[in-house]
Structures are given as C-alpha cells and as structure tokens.
Amino acid sequence: MEIGRRDLILSAAALALTPRALAAQRPNRPLGYAIVGLGYYGLRIIIPEFANCKHSRLAAVVSGDPAKARRVAAEHGLSDRAIYSYANFDSIRDNPDVDIVYVCLPNSMHAEYTIRAAKAGKHVLCEKPMAVSAAECEAMIAACKAADRKLMIGYRCHFEPTNLEAMRLARAGEAGKIRYVRSEHGFVQGDPSAWRLKRALAGGGSLMDMGVYSLQAARYMTGEEPVAVTARESTDRRDPRFTEVEDMIEWTLEFPSGALAGCQSMYSANQNRILLMGDKGRIELEPATRYDGNRMWLGKDGREREVTPPAGPAKTQFAGQLDHIVQCVRTGQEPVVSGEEGLRDMRIVEAIYRSAREGRTIRLDGRA
Amino acid sequence: MEIGRRDLILSAAALALTPRALAAQRPNRPLGYAIVGLGYYGLRIIIPEFANCKHSRLAAVVSGDPAKARRVAAEHGLSDRAIYSYANFDSIRDNPDVDIVYVCLPNSMHAEYTIRAAKAGKHVLCEKPMAVSAAECEAMIAACKAADRKLMIGYRCHFEPTNLEAMRLARAGEAGKIRYVRSEHGFVQGDPSAWRLKRALAGGGSLMDMGVYSLQAARYMTGEEPVAVTARESTDRRDPRFTEVEDMIEWTLEFPSGALAGCQSMYSANQNRILLMGDKGRIELEPATRYDGNRMWLGKDGREREVTPPAGPAKTQFAGQLDHIVQCVRTGQEPVVSGEEGLRDMRIVEAIYRSAREGRTIRLDGRA
What we know:
The structure is a homodimer.
Chain A: H1 5-14, H2 19-25, E1 31-36, H3 40-46, E2 56-62, H4 66-75, E3 83-84, E4 100-103, H5 110-119, E5 123-126, H6 134-146, E6 151-153, H7 161-171, E7 178-186, H8 199-202, H9 210-222, E8 228-234, E9 248-254, E10 260-266, E11 271-278, E12 282-285, E13 296-299, E14 305-307, H10 317-331, H11 339-358, E15 362-363
Parallel strand pairs in A: 1-2, 1-4, 2-3, 4-5, 5-6, 7-10
Antiparallel strand pairs in A: 7-11, 8-9, 8-15, 9-10, 11-12, 12-13, 13-14
C-alpha cells in the first residue's frame, strides 16, 4: 500500500481530531451511508452502486435478519459495529461513520425510520413513495427540519440522463406549448405474497409503486403543479393478488396552463412510457424510467428521430442520487427532490384515491 | 370498345326491364352511390376510391355548389341528371341509378340527409360521427327501418387490415386477459374557420372528430361495452380556434371484465395510437387509424415484433367500406358497423361530455 506524503501529514493531524471534525477537515471524504432494509432494492440495486459513487460509501447496514446483515457486512468489509437491528437502530447516533441513512423499507415504515434517523442526527435519503400519507410526510419534514438534517426522496429519474434530457427539451420548448403528457407505468406482479400487495406495508397498490413514476413524470415534464385530478380504479378483487390493494388506476391531472396529464399504473400488464405532446411536436420515452436502457424519440407525429442524451451527472442514476445528497450536505443546498417534493406527490396520491373512491373530480388548488 | 357475346345477350334482355328489375337480374352489377357533400372527404378521399371498388360506382353527386358539382360530374362521366342540390335532393327517389346515399356532410346535417335519403328509398352510408345526438341517431335508425333500407356508419377502421388484425389477435388471446386499452387521436387543427370548430355544424370539438376513433378503438379492441365513463376536458378558450368547441378531452371507460380504456382526443397536438395491454403481452398500433401507413407491434413489454397484417377484404379500407354495404344490400345482412353501432358511440359521447361538465363518473349501465 502506497501512502503519499500528503496523506501521512493529514493522517497524523487526524489523530488529534474527532471523526466529525475530521470530516470538516477533509471536505471531500466520501460520506457514509447506512442502508436500512436489505430487501431486493437495498441489497441488489443500491449497495452495489457505491462502487459507482464519487462521494458516497457504505458505512452500515440495518436489517431484521442478523445472519443476512452479517453476510452483507462481511462482503463489504464492514465491522460488526456497522450492523444494526431495528431494535437498536437509534444507537446509530453514536456512529460517526454514518452521515446519511437510506430508508429502503416497505412504504409504511418510511416515516418511522426517517424520523428516527433525523433524531439520531443523520441526513435521510428515503425511498419513494415518501410515506403512506401526507400527514406522515409532514411529520418527516418537521423532524428533519428540527434536527437540521437534509431530507431527500429516492426519485432516481432526476438523475437519469434520458429523463433529464427530456425535461431540458420540454423546458426549452422543443415540443412547443405543452398540451398533454401521458405517463404509463406497470408490470405484471407475479408474487401474491409480495409486501407491495399488503395494505399495511405498502399503503396502497400499483399507485404507491409504479404510479409514483407516472405522477412524477407528469409534474417534471410539464414543470407545473396540478390543480385538479379525476381518477378511476379497476381491480379484479377475485384475483388473489388484489384482495387488499388496487391493481389498475388511471387519473387525469389538470395544470394551470391548460395542459392535461393522463397517467396510469397497474400490476397486471407491462408498460413503461412517457409521452409529452405540444403544439409543435412530441417527446417520447420508452422504456422511460427503467434502471437502464431508457430511450427517447422526438417527432412531429411520432417517433421520427431517436435522441441519445448527453451523459448524466454520474456513472449511473443510482450513483447520481447517492452522491447528490452528499453534495447537498456539503454545500447546504436543498436536494432537487426534497421532502417537500415527496409531500406534493403524496397529497396528489391521496386526491387520486379520493377521486376514484368518490367518482368525482378533486380540486388540488383549494377551489370548489 | 369490345363487347362480348354474353354482354350483348344481357343488354338485349335488359331493354325490356326496369332498372330495379335489371339489378335483380344482374345481381353483381355494381351499385350506384350518390355522394352528398363535395368537401375534402367526399371529393378527395371517397370519390377516387370507386376505382378500387368491385361492387360500387359513383352514380350521382349532391352539392350546394353547382359549378363544383358540374365539374365533378363531368370528370366522372356523369350526366347533368346525376347532379343534385340540397333543395332538390328528395327527387333522388326518382333516380333508379342511385342505390346508396353516402352522407359526407358536416355532422349536424347527418340526421337530416340520412332520413331524407331513407324516405327517398335509398340505403345510407353515413360518415362518423353518426349525428350530433343520440336522439338524432335513433330517428335515423327508425327512418331507415321504416323504409326497409340499410344504414351503415363510415367506421372505415373495420375494413383496415391493421385494425382488423389487431381485433383478431385481441380476440384470439394474443395479449392474454385484456386489462387496458389506450387510444389517442389528435392533430393540430390549423384552420380557425374549419367547420369542425363550429358548434352548430360539428356538434362538438375534437371528441366529435378524432375522439370517435379513440372511442371506437376502445370498444373494438376490448370487444366489450363500457359500463361507466369519467372524463375531463381542457381547452384554452382564449385560442381563437376554440371559442365554440373543446380542444382536448380525456376519458376513462370501465368495462364489465374490469378492463379500463384510457382515451383521448385533441386538436392541439398530433397523435394516432392504439395500445392494448393484457397480462400476457401487448398489441400496439402507431399510426393506428390513418388512411394508410398504419403499423402494428406485438411484445411482452414494448414494441418487440412488428406484424404485417394479411391483406384486407378490399384494395383499400375505403373500397372495403363502400363495397360492404353493397354486399349487405344484396344478402340482407346487417352492416358490421350499423346504425345501432353509431348510436352506441353517440350515447357514450353524450356521457363523456356530461362527465366532463359535471366532474363526476357517469354510469352507462343504468346502475346508480
């Protein structure tokens, strides 16, 4: 192992410093993440992405499965002190190696672990959907504010090159005056035992999962906040997968400019598409929001010209997301996908469910 | 000019027969059409299509513009007796050369000319939308029934190879259990003086034009009748094109099977697409319902395999449509796109407008 002269000087100086002071001394030290929840997303998607990060590293794991936690810790060179259970999670406050807690738990646990992390003095990156109610989102924002910690939602598309380029083109007027956005997300949910099909864990069905992508796309493609929503749901309640949550839901958002967004999510067919239509042309993405392989076309009437977006801000959308909150911690800026952004979505999600339930349009702007 | 022996015998025999009796004697004689309305569709799209027909021929024109009517008649070898004005249209009853009247007028005139044609003893092919209200459709059906004449609506997609193959594949279970149909139709309506933008002539905006394609597709792709509709409209009323009728309208249909259809029409952006999603795959058409160049793809998640449909029942969808009612006249069968089919659509159209106006779901099955 080669150690440079500068490293030796810094290391020597560090001996006299607390870890937090050390971090201040070495502003470009990668910040340490605790991954809460070692399910598929946390374990298979997020943890491997630290290898693609410049400013983030794995520092701890939190799991209800001690054997799995030990195995993952060992694989990633973490000591036993970097392993937490849900019972002793609050003691993470005493681990200066952890700067940020990434909540990768089922939806209904997001609020609790975000609030506990903030109280433990950690910044929080929380998976989408932010929580299962707007009231929970408000409590999460308040907790992070009280602790003076950053709160960011795992809206990875804001770090994905195709979506970023689509947003830029939409803002630049590529399609002219925006009239309509269509966003469809779904997949065939094959496992009837998945936690996403349990109301107590997921808070809802496809809307709380893929629907959040459709909703987000409607907002980031138009750049507007909706003023009304009209929704319809359709679920085969005899299907063993859908005894607790909805399969398919369809909703129309109305924006102040007059643009409409037709959105949809489902658990009974595959789709992944965003289309923006303006009076001068179209921007179409399909697949739109996958982990990779997203594609985009421009055209007057259809897919006339495929566009290769410029490289994104990081090696992958996941690395970009992980490193973004680090930069926010360092600079004091708000994450581009803050807790307020998650709260906005959750208020709309509640209105979508209410509209579907009551069979009427729900205003989002306080008008009758 | 070469005249065969058989023709000579038939012609000689015909001398002793009335034209109607002649038709009975020569069951494969092409039937004669009167085209009512020499606007773009009648003049530029339909009249040239008689060249592609086996069983149909142009026999008369009806126009409010005598000079145009004379020019068109001359171009197609019709005598002055084959020219009618709107004033003397009813005298077409005395023209045995006309078997079928094709109503290519603005929407609000469909009912009047269909009923007058039936009273004149003619079969009727009426452009879509069938009329501007369900009440008008009922009167049209009653008039044709009373006169024992066929009534067919100009739903050309039922004669278009790509759409026919899509219907066949959907019925054959290619996509599995149908969960969702998406149908989007629109174009940039550039001419503020177009009759389609005048409420008195069009009866409504984009829904009465392109929206009918979206609605038809939702019905023929699912093969079901909707039980409820939820709609939202968005129109910039400051836009000089949209002082009288809607620009954009979005609606969700619910079907008895639980399938949903998300449909849309607009006059401020270009789109032409049908997508069917089932639990086993997708059938996608884009462009879906153009005069030509329609394309179709199958796939699990997207456009994985392009399908070239088998040749349709006629040279073109227009010729197929023109010849179909002739076959119905000859065999006594009902047209596949009968007046009842047009009435079904118009009842849904009325419910779409009502849902958008009242901001609530409208049941179509009589349930509360």
